[in-house]
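Subject: complex prediction, re-run

Hi both,

The earlier run crashed halfway through, so I resubmitted it with identical inputs.
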Amino acid sequence: MTLTAFQGSVELGLIYAIMALGVFISFRTLNMPDLTVDGSFVLGAALSATLCSSGHPFAGLTAAFVAGCGAGCITALLNTKLKIQPILAGILTQLALYSVNLRAMNNKANISLLNKQTIFSIMQDTAVGNYMKLILSFLILTVILVVLFLFLKTKLGFALRATGDNENMVRAQGINTDYTKTIGLALANGLVAVSGAIIAQYQSFADISMGVGMVVIGLASVIIGEVIFGTSSLLRRLTAVILGAVLYRVIIALALELGMPPTDLKFVSAVIVAVALSISTINEKITSVRNRLSARKGGQA
Amino acid sequence: MLRIEGISKTFDKGSVNERLVLDNVSLSLEEGEFVTVIGGNGAGKSTLLNCISGVHIVDKGRIFLDNMDITYSPEYKRAKYIGRVFQDPMMGTAYDMTIAENLAIAYAKGKPQGLRAGIKKSDYKLFRERVALLELGLEDRLEHKVGLLSGGQRQALTLLMAALVKPRLLLLDEHTAALDPAIAKKVLQLTRTIVEENHLCTLMITHNMRDALEYGTRTIMMHEGRIILDFKGKEREEMTVERLIEQFGNKSGTLLDNDRMLLS
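This time it finished cleanly. Structure:
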């Protein structure tokens, strides 16, 4: 892989890591499989592209965060107040968002940002030159990581984490779990939308279908990170998610370079996640078969 | 302190499984009273506690705590005044968080969650002191995840958390039933210490009749959703397990059907 290609996948990885942190909040911290992600990612990209087109790249990021939080709130309300299962609640919001996203993109399936000012083009002429995209992505991600880490160490953050661990305990300690779930899902989708917003400006276009399978990519990043980099402390877990997201991008880039057609990308992503999720079960099976075999041998001897 | 006026609860209303679990139950607890609750399977003991704590909302009747009407207030709101320990040691703590973080959640009970630091430096000193009272050596493991603790250690920790901010009512639902006898005894003694020191109004369900008479200041027995025996003071001091079984037979017209209860 050329250095430029490697740098490119690291940059993408850093931006997608923001999305993966969002997925981490819903799947791991709240223990809720939230499929809103596929929709809220595009929502962020759509708002970001539209506002960029009219010359407001930074407002695009802010709007994306706020709208993403809103999308998360809707999923949370469907789940907590109307008692719809979390997966279905997420799918409903995601479906509704498809129409919302088209509206946000003025009923066009894609928006090009060529020759438009983005957060990256504003910094283009600074001294760092070639490394500008890398540095800017890294800076944004670092700020988000620090703020998220500090948030999860507050009283509200504790309540959020405990909700995913044990809802009974949280309610017995006088905390409204509907509230913590809503905050968590809002924050998760806010981050996902910001990630979509930055990706749109990074690649200079937004597309209505760019969010398909995003939740799977997010999960893949979380799981790869956990397996390789560990889960011992909170900071380590968050860092692992980021490294997982970068590693995922590098793996994909390598696969593409080895001749995998880009159209097969989603298939490969699905396989990676399926394998990663089943590793523990497969290990158990192998151990059990091995025990049975050795028991049989022992019997004969 | 706690005043329950004629509460009833029916499960699965309108279905073939419909059953009346609480039948017009009334009960009053004075401040500092430690009531042990016994009864057969399906007598309504756990449902009574769950109705008080708000897991279930009653069909009829009223529940007052400190003259506040909590009959319809949601579980998390009344939890501010009620400490609880469950039968399942997994249910009282967050397993993926540290001992200190669990204690911090309990310590913040009744206060707004907000964006203040989850644990302050000064909290650690208090947590260490309190955890040391358990005599389980956990005071040096405050940064360990609760998932690494044994069932008995978790139950002791849950008990500590339930009383960390003094509750107006402590509800214990067979909180030693899942523990092995030696640890169960230790947790029970700890319960007595905490209740007496804080002068807590307590309801404790137990399947062990000897414990029911040994601990607490008053004992009630439930059968088919009603309280059939209620005794304290001198009458309670003279009560034995044998006489209790006999009285149960007289009052209910059946034999005691709690298998665990007869064994213990």
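The CA atoms of residues 50 and 106 of chain A lie 8 Å apart.

- K.
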